[in-house]
Structures are given as C-alpha cells and as structure tokens.
Amino acid sequence: MAPSRVIVLVVLAASLFSIDAPRAQAPPPPPAPQVAGRVLTLEECIAIALDAQPRIQATLADYAAARYRVNQAMAPLLPQLSGLVSATRSQGTTITTNAAGSTIQVAQSRQLGDTFLAQVQLSQLLFDFGKNLAATEAARKLAEVAVEDVELQRQLISLTVKEAYTNTLFSQRLIRVQDQAQERAELNLRSAKGFFEVGTRPKSDVARAEVDVANAKLDLIRAKNALRTAIVALNIAMAINVDTPTQIVDNLVYEPLTLDRQQLRSDSLRQRPEYRQAKLRAAAAEATERQTFRNFFPDISGSGAYGGTQSQLNESWSLGLTLSWSLFDGGGRIARYQEAKANLEGARARVKSTELDIVQNVEQAEISVEEAQERILAAQALVASAQENFRLAQGRFDAGVGTILELTDAQLALTQAQNTESQALADYRIALARLDRAVGRR
Question: What pTM did the predictor assign?
Fold first, then answer.
C-alpha cells in the first residue's frame, strides 16, 4: 500500500513541472496578392502593402510580447503553487561514549525511504503596498505603446506607397514628354534636311537638328530607366515580387485644396501615434516611479504545505505568515527611486517636445502643399507660353525666316516647361501625402 502511495505522489509532483505552457503559433503568411493583369488604384496599393508588409507583422509580434509582459507583471499577485519531492541516502560514523566511559564508533545509514518527502506548496502575496499593481500598470502602458507602434508603421508604409506611386506616375509622365520631344526633334530634322536638299539651309542646320534628336533619345532612355526604378520601389513598398509588371491608375492631376491650419493642428495632436506613445511612456514612467517608492515598504505573504514523509507517507502540513522588509540594501532602493523620478521628468519633457515636433511637421507640410499649388499654376502658364513660342518658332523656320537655333531653343524651352509642370504635379501629390502623415492619417 505504501509504495503505491509513493508512486502516486511522485507522479502528481512530477506533473506539476511537466504541464506544457500554451505555445504561441505564428499566423500563416498572407497569400500573395494577384497584381499582374490589374490596374491598381492608390487605395488598392496601400491595402496590399498593409496586408503584406513584414514590418507590420513584426510590430504585431512586438505587441503580443508586450501583452505577455503584462501577464508576467501580474503573476506575483496570483497564488503560487509548486510541488516538492526529495529523498536522500547517506551513511556515516559517529563517536559516542557508553556507560562504562569507553569511546565507540557507531555506523549510521539512512535509506531513501527514511528521508522521502512529497509536498504540494501554496503561497499567496497578501499585501505589498501596491508594488506589483504599479508594475502591472507600467507594463500595460508599454503594451499600449506597442499598439501605437503598429499604427505608426501602417502610416509610414502608407506614406512610402503614396510616394512610390506618385514617382511611378511622374516617370510615366516624363516618358510621354520625352516621346513628344523626340517626335518634335525628328520633325525638325526632316524639315532641316528638306531645306538643305533644296539649298535654302546650310548643313549646320541639319547637324544641329541631329544633335537635338540624339539628346531627346538620351533623355527618353533616362526616363524609362527612372520608371523601372520607380516600379521596383512601388513593388517593394507593397512587399510583392520586384519583377511584377505593376500597372496603376493615373491620379497626377491638380485638385485645389483649402487648408484649415487650426483644425489640422488639433487633428494631428489627436491622431499622431507618436504623441500618444509619448504620453503613454510618461504614464508608464509614473507607474514605475510609484513602484520604486513602494519598494521601501514590507511584503506580507502567506504560505502552506501539505504532503507526506518517509516511506509510509505520514501526513504532514504547515501554515505560515511571513513579513519581509529590507531595512538597508546599501542605498540601491534610493538610487532606483531617484532614477525613476529622473525618467519620469524626462518622459514628461518628451511629451512636450513631441508636441512641438508634430506642430512643426504640420506647418512644414502645409507650406509645401501651398507652394506646390502655386508652382502648378505657374508651370501651367509656362507650358502655354512655351507651346505658343514653339509654334511661332516652327512657323518662322518653315517659312524660311527663322533660324534652327531659334527653333531648337523653343523646343528645349517647351520640353523643360512640360517637365516642370510634371514635377510640380508630382510634388503636389507627395506634399499631400506628407500632410496626411503629419496629421496622422493613412
């Protein structure tokens, strides 16, 4: 009977240490989006990036780890249950004196069954002046910081996609401009050759026109390479294969926008995750400061044990109440409390610093949007003037009263004006994207 009871208690105690903790399994990777053969809008590109970007998956994992740290901080407040099984075997010799006064050596041997102990031990923290509650509150605030980090990564990825999307459209626009420039240069070359063949123009006009055609071809090659680079950047931002022939909808148009500065400023302080993170870190620092202050007070805990001893498993139990108080530790607690106070002051100062940075970002983004709008209007007027100038120069050249130099200068001015307009439109879209980011919008 006794051996079977020993086996039961040993198995019970061993089971206390062999319970597997739940294993967190990583979610399966999302399926690759079907991009080839589709013409994507900006919103679709952003949605693909938010689903597939590994940076978001990494921040989600960081948030999960932060939530588990909250559980760790709360664990000391809950009952602590453990099992204990021990047995020792020893042999020794003791020297004793008998009644006759002579000294004799007596051999002592203790078997495993003589020292066997099997217990289940329970302990509970009864009162600690709120130390663990403060530590749990600090961990919870830091977990909320991790939540805001997820939103921050989403906003940053959205901005990256918007900029890559705009750069792709800008490169496509430049290709069209350079195509038109090459067509105009080739038309001028044919006209120069025709005039040269009939003897009304010198050979130098043909040579100058050939140079313009060559320059137009080089500019077109550069524009096509820029498009390839922009598509690679867009594919990387969406976390898809870089070789995917991504096609997107052209939104590179001017849409006037009126800005409400006060509203944008208040929206940014409400929506920017960096500002919420700064305030949460300050709250966590305040909780940590409370915890380190309460470390000067004692802990009160209760404990109990129940089990059996020796091979017969004679019943044994115990109950206890413990008050532990560290009276002096070399000044370590005082130093930790002073450190926590300094960290709290720094966290509160960083809240104000973050607020100033956000206001500055919003103001700069507003200025960039307004500047881009003015540049678009000026560039559109410049394009209209350059087109008219080129039309007149081409008419004068065809009529034989203009020079090839006048025509090529007008051609170059028109191409540069069209490039300037395209650049202004792209800068306007990027400025709007950065304004969204400054305000805290995706």
Answer: 0.80
